[in-house]
Amino acid sequence: MKAELLARLLAVAGIVVPLAGVGVVLAPRLSSGGEAIEIHARVAEEGGWQPSELVVAAGAPIRLRLTSDDVVHGFAVGQSDIQAVEILPGQYTELTVTFDRPGRYAYYCTRWCGAGHWRMRGTIEVVGGELPSTAPQEPLYVALGLDIDAPHLAPEAPGRRPSSVAGAALGVEPPAEMTGRGYYESHTPVQAIESLRAEASLSWMDDQEMWDLVALLWRRNTTAETLETGRELFAQNCAACHGEAGGGDGVMAGSLLTLADGPSATEAPQPADFTSLRSMLGASPALLQGKILRGGMGTGMPYFGPILTEAQIWSLVDYLWTFTMEYEE
Amino acid sequence: MKRLDLLRSPAVASLLRSRWPTLAISLLALAGFVLAIVAGLAGTPVGSRNFGIIAVWIAWWAALILIAVPLLGRGWCSICPLPLPGAWLQRGGVFAPSARRRGLGLRWPRRLRNLWTQNIGFAILAVLSTAILTQPSVSAMVLLGLMAAAVGVSLVFERRAFCSYVCPVGGFIGLYSQVAPLEIRVRDASVCAGHSEKTCYFGSQHGEGCPWQVFPAGLNRNSACGMCFECLRTCPHDNIALRLRPFGSDLPRPAGRRLDEAYKGLLMLASALAYSAVLLGPWGAIKTAAFRVGTPEWAIFAGAFLAAAFIGLPGAFALHVVAGRALGGLRRGLRETVAEFAQALIPLGLAGWAAFSLSFVLSNLSYLWAVLSDPFGAGWNLIGTAAGAWTPYLGGALPALQTGILVCGLAWAASLARRIAARLVGGGTLGGRRRAVALASPVVSFALGVTVLQLWLLIG
Known about the structure:
A: elongated; B: mainly alpha; two-stranded antiparallel sheet; 20 helices; 4 strands
């Protein structure tokens, strides 16, 4: 009888001890308080971030415990200097962040985790603290009233890519009103070449030479450092769909067809081809900025407005022209 | 050859006669089993970081297929936690049987006293296996389901009917236990014949009647004996032996082989090939189809697997047997001949499973150290090994190991086929030996084909 009693006690222990583990695991999840916020990452098709909305107080350090429930993801907060971290499946990455200013911040995945990678977005609502003294400036494409969804094919295109090097070799200075950053951001190359053609002093130039002069104008509005920043941002955020060489043929390009919303999902356009002269020469930097900021409605193009800073977006825009124009030899 | 009876040692006999060692190990296994279920349901869904996947399908499976079955036969069944709750309820006690037994105690239906239920159960698990092996919650539900089935069967039917006739794992353990170098038999059958009480089968105050419904005096192979040692406790004449023997001693014997056992061998062989292709092969489309349970592509995968396992491979094997029968001039029924030669598939299948298991066990075993420290994938580090990096073991030696195992399996199968053929045709004379070679040759070529195919799948 004693043996039976002891055996029963051991049997109960064999069942209860592992079960106690559940309590230890679930207790932090069930408690409303808790020191750390646990965020689970899943590919977008399985729900993306969980939770995907956080409300935190400005100025207070927040400890985040990040884990992936499937594949390797990354975690970054848009428009912030918080260092991006990697999230490994079944492991925890801890991160302490502080938001000084109130507002809505986006957190997103930084690893190409799947076809719906760009849909992995969450928001952090930071409340309390001082509001910024200046109102946010409206984007240039809005100020210019551009319809960024309208077709923007150039009516003509040169026989080869416009070259800033060839433009510089002409030894011609473009009109002063065309040389500032403001002109560059708000005009298309087609508009620029039309202005050049109107200049009597440049009437000796042929069309290709004029396109080269436009390329020189465009090149003078950026720097090597900016282009390098743009290259890095493109590689991280754009190349998977638009292709490393900007031809619209990235590894994820095919899968976007089935990801677009709505009944026309299978007819969603391919990612933009930045090597297409007719397409790009009819677009202004402001239009490209708008597409990056807002995303492409009805296409697979994500919106980067909450992710990238204005300076980053302009770096990216500047870099896109390197697919259309030859900037260096 | 004289076989060493380990129970002649008083220490071993005393150890095995006591219920405590077995109970202690089985309770440890039960705790691990419960932990696997709990981790599967409440832990991380990442299989490689969940105790429920790594402990069961990597560690336990490796221990079972590479060590326990080849060396101890049904030794695992004696400590398996799956039937424990049902057995406790049925016999009314955890430590020993009592008068407060529960359940209807019905006899298992005569029509189901074969391996077909286990074959079908294993086939169902096989077509779901990609999900079971990778998704902790699915794995946990399957383990829970098996335990619930074991309890249910124990409460309706007598003894270990679940283990003998239902458990899909028990079916193949029983099949391959015939190669083990260990057997429980009686020392002197005439003692049993003269023992009218048959306490080994009906029980006594020292223990219950054989839970596996085996009369030890009639035991001539390992597949039906669960190695629980109840017979050792209930035999008043100290007539039970635990013998060391040559590997595979059960295999060449004629024992009125049934087709269900032949199919079990063929199903296991087909599964080893299919798993090698699906889990280790380079074909992403097959892997995806196997994983997406319930989709049309999975239905196609499942249909193809079942067709290959129940029709294709058995059909091919039967054709080889037919060819052998014609070459060897054997006048014996096809069904019986197939059943006889199917014995040769047992070492072949075990070698196939061992070679396949080595691949994923050696490449994934390093996850075990992490899940022992953090069973739920909750960020714990109980024993300081949670952050251990994934490290495949013996990667360079793996192809040689697998080749060696498969070649040994082939050689064993070929030798067995020749011995079976010699027995069937009476191979004592020169003519008989020639006929035996002719009879066995197609079966050997079948085994060779299977081995080459698996070699290609694993290391080709």
